[in-house]
Amino acid sequence: MGRAGLGHLIIATSLFCLTLASVAQGQSITNGVAMAPPPKWVKSFEEPSAGAFENNGTEGESFILLEEQQHAGTGEVYTHVVKKITSQSGVQDGAKVHFSFDPTYQRLDLNFIVLRRGDKIYDRLEPEKIKVFQQETELERHQYNGTLSAVLFVEDVRVGDILEYGWTIRGSNPVMGGHFIHSFLVDWSVPVQKQVYRVLWPAEKKLIVKQHQTEVRPEVTHLEGVDDYTWEIKRRTPVVVEDTTPLGYNPFGWIQLTEFSSWKDVVEWALPLYVSTKPLPDELRQKIAAWRLAGEPEDQVQAALRFVQDEVRYLGMEIGPGSHRPSEPGVVFARRFGDCKDKVSLFCTMLHEMGIEAHPVLVHTSRRQHLDEWAPSPYAFNHVVALVKVNGNNIWVDPTRSFQRGHLKDLYFPDYARGLIIKPGTTDLCLIPAPKAGLPKTTVNESFNIKSYNSPIQYEVTTTYEGLSADHMRASFSNSRREELEKTLLNQSAKRYPKIKMTRPMESQDDQQRNIFILIEHYEVKDIYELSDDTRKWSTWFYPDEILPFVKRPETSFRSMPLGIVHPWHYVQNTEIRLPQDYNLQNETKQVEEKALRFERQVNYTNRLLRLHYELESLADEVPTKEVPEHLENLKKIRAVVGYGIQHPNVTPDAPKPAEPFQVNWSILAMAGMYFVLATVAAVIAHHYRPQYHANEPPLIIHELKGIGGWLIVLTIILCLKPIIYAVFLLKHAGVYFTLSSWSILTTPGNAHYDPLWAPLLIFEVLGNLTMLVFSVLILVLFFQNRFAFPRFFMLFLVLSVIMVTLDEVGAGLIPKAHGGPAVSGVALFRTLFHSIVWILYVVRSQRVKLTFVE
């Protein structure tokens, strides 16, 4: 036996002794929780070496062994966990040992809890320190399941310790009628060195094993009376889950176990659950009799549906068998609350009493079409709806929904895609048609009446909600006080317009026949315009705020998983702005359409009235992985035109000073600073350039021409002025280059002076003038040092000047708003070119230059 095997033997022996010692201390901790050894049928599995396990996670703990063993015949489930604490965060979180069970049909046996530190093993199963309490995790969803939690905070846990614990749950939910159903993951988002799942299955029965996104298969051993199915999984790569995946998408591999051989078996299991055995109360029978007189069958169905939806509140008492068995219809009616199955059972019973066919339908709110991949199982579903037959037509309704209005055929029913109809003869899942009625739509009509740039503005918003959107808004009004809703809406608007106040109470209109809900808001807004830093421009922006979150870029752009989209969703915003004077604004239409969404923006301007129209509609609930790049590019196109800015180019002399402080364009300033440093370094390097001087004198040389004199005096003046000229130019235009407001006026789409060429032209001017400034200082130094390299650098400087002026004039000429028109002025170019040619000829031919610059 090797060292590793000997070590595991010592650990196993120690655990056995500690378990016996723990049991000897006392069996019972509290009702439903006891201390006991593992069941005799449990098999020991070799634990991998903790030292060989590399932790690639960031959770503070590494799982060395995850082990679950289940005996289908006795209903016992044994779980064994070995994990290593790898950081202080792991000490905080990993030291809490947590067990959950349903006391109505389960018992929790704590088998052992030990702490291993090096070669030492410490018993941490201390009954007096275990706390048992009821923790309702679904309380916010109005669901109570009665689950108890036993929690132990293990003491003296340190980084590097190994925590090992095992427990057994005895008992299974009687509502399942003894049917075996189970599933387990084979992929995790954290590192797991080894995972074991084992089930002992009666040999005379058939176990259906369904693999989902995995090829892991069990080793099957035939024992006396049972078959041993064992999965041993080692070192699976953790799954990195990307953000914003579609509803129902599961990136993890998992295995499903069931003894239901068909969906027909599931229906036969569910049918008795929806059979009422008690007579209906007289009050309910009277209501049903009154509804019979309501008119056509559609009206009777709608009356019963509205009662269950609005008069029976949602509250799930899903304790024990109540997880799947609905309460008696009479009980639900009397107490006026129930969960989805309770409400559906009551609703179907009412319709049966009126002679209308109706059946419960099991669905899943997120798995939808993915149910096709499942083996038959009641656990495939998490919700119950109803199918009603009226005049030969199928009508799908959800009695759990509240505040639905409109005609029965116009009610919204979610796209559940698949369902299992609980009625005799059902053999398979049914297709549920995609919704066409009651689809959500929100239309916002807002108006701004701007009379001047510094006076309060009347701002009105009329929002029309249709279909599902109207249902949600109606529910909000029912569940909240009007004052609370007014405050919420005011604060939402204040995010865009800080100086806003409500001038009249909010108005609401509820057209329940057409299921349209209208909300009208009246505001006054101050300082909607902002004055530029140089007090020459007023500017403001208008955005469709509800669209912005929909088109934001997901956190994970390079994806291996599909991208989920909110669907169905349809939003329209119409903005009217009455402007105080004429603007030069262009009408335009922008459209983006793909498989997942459709977007449109229209801009219309006439007679000082600016109209902006935005519309965004989802067309699918997900984008396949291979289509994500195209989708993200479309989102970018949409974000580029979501929002419209306008500016007033002229301001009266007595315009108020800007309310906001001066803002530096730090990005351009930083770029210019770094470039200036690099240019200076280049100039210093160039200064050390010393080409070899040839002293051979040409014939007829006049030595009196040596030194500064003649035309060199004029050149001296010009060279001394050049750095000053470039520096003054940069300072004069610093307000354009280095202030954020002026830069934004020229480079932000939607502004009156915007052009896409402004940004590259301005950057070129900044860097070009910095180059010439440094270059002019360099040639000035070379000039006064009589350096032999001066003529070469001076001619290069003149050529560069011509290139700079040419590119600047051409670039400015391409921008109509740069110089009042598209024509390029050739005056500056001709002047620079003539000046450069004259001085280049002088430097080349002058004997004074040849005699003076010899160093």
Q: Write down how many β-strands occur, each being a DSSP E stretch of 2 or more residues.
A: 38
Q: Tally the helices: what do you get?
A: 18
Shape: extended
Q: Give me the CATH fold name of the largest domain.
A: Immunoglobulin-like
Low-confidence stretches: 1-26, 650-661, 695-701, 819-824
CATH class label of the largest domain: Mainly Beta
Helical amount: 25-40%
Total domain modules: 4
Q: What class would the helix/strand composition place it in?
A: alpha+beta
**Radius of gyration based on Cα positions:** 40 Å
**Head-to-tail CA distance between termini:** 89 Å
If classified by CATH, what would the architecture of the largest domain be? Sandwich
Average of pLDDT: 84
Largest sheet: 10 strands, mixed
| Portion in strands | 25-35%
Keywords: Membrane, Signal, Transmembrane, Transmembrane helix
Protein name: Transglutaminase domain protein
Transmembrane segments: 666-687, 708-731, 757-784, 793-815, 821-844
Pfam family, one: DUF2569
Topology (elements, then pairings):
Layout: H1 3-25, E1 28-30, E2 33-35, E3 61-71, E4 76-85, H2 88-94, E5 96-101, E6 107-117, E7 120-123, E8 131-134, E9 143-144, E10 148-153, E11 162-170, E12 181-185, E13 192-202, E14 208-212, E15 219-222, E16 226-236, E17 254-258, H3 263-270, H4 282-292, H5 297-311, E18 313-314, E19 316-317, H6 329-335, E20 337-338, H7 340-353, E21 357-363, E22 383-390, E23 393-397, E24 418-421, E25 430-431, E26 441-449, E27 457-466, H8 468-479, H9 482-494, E28 500-511, E29 516-525, E30 530-531, E31 538-542, E32 563-564, E33 570-578, E34 588-593, E35 597-606, E36 609-618, E37 622-623, H10 628-641, E38 644-648, H11 666-687, H12 711-732, H13 734-737, H14 740-747, H15 758-784, H16 790-813, H17 827-845, H18 847-852
